[in-house]
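User: quick one
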Amino acid sequence: DAGVIQSPRHEVTEMGQEVTLRCKPISGHDYLFWYRQTMMRGLELLIYFNNNVPIDDSGMPEDRFSAKMPNASFSTLKIQPSEPRDSAVYFCASSFPTTNTGELFFGEGSRLTVL
Amino acid sequence: GENVEQHPSTLSVQEGDSAVIKCTYSDSASNYFPWYKQELGKGPQLIIDIRSNVGEKKDQRIAVTLNKTAKHFSLHITETQPEDSAVYFCAASLYGNNRLAFGKGNQVVVIP
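Assistant: Done. Structure below.
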């Protein structure tokens, strides 16, 4: 398997624009996570899904952020409108049910810069 | 919720020496403690984990120790090599709970 695939790898946009980040989890993984990484706050869990259903979105910063998982092989994280403070690296991760190893498999991240 | 802190934030070691990174956690109910390594431009990758039913676990040059009484756990890297240079994240959670609480990461630099 190719691992977790994220796109785009880099995104530069202007304040107020809509940003959509995409993720393809590893086939067979039931859980999908979106994390945000910044120098100040480290790795923060934004939201996670189990079998395509959002389970915990308490980490989503505000209503400008939304995430969807229309099927087992695709998820999006959308920011609308974007702001400079949203600049960060956004990671998607997937895992088997935690009755197995509990290991998270991360993608390579999407680096977002909002000007 | 769980709060995880890592020390030191940056660690420089000579190649061949040992590196130790320590993490403390706040929730005494946590029983699962993984360590992730993040290389430049990559996502974090699990390198070792430990559950609270053991005090130490080793895998070749890396080991993790856990002190549940003091609520801290440490990553030990022996015979460091340049490829060990990376950011290391510790995390804690209740096993089976998907809300891993990560520390902010330690930059380890191995000087050749």
